[in-house]
Amino acid sequence: QVHLVQSGGGSVQAGGSLRLSCAASGYIVSRNLMGWFRQAPGKEREGVAAIYPGAKRTYYADSVKGRFTISQDSAENTLYLQMDGLKPEDTAMYYCAATAGMTIAQALRVVEHPEAADFRYWGQGTQVTASS
Q: Mean pLDDT by 10-residue block, N- to C-terminus, for the chain (132 residues)?
């Protein structure tokens, strides 16, 4: 059984930094495509970043490029999202997500434009608030 347990997040002033963690059990982080999504009140869930280690591919939404970094630690079997230069518009609930059963071709497509429907497993969510 797959479990994704998130930690990190919180409240910071604009320009501050936070790191989100997503510890996986029953799932090998280094072998699969995983991602981070966020959802603000009244808005749809959007893909923020994704990583496909097998092809050394990453994806970042235009709104976070140059500020956020997605990474994974094989030894800890954990996915991370380092968020620097946080802006008030980054305020949202953040979720880690993991795919399952994808072919290489599917993963290469999804990592270019991740959508929530492509991911099977989800973390519990963690709130990130950046205030001006």
A: 97 98 96 97 96 94 98 97 98 98 94 97 98 94
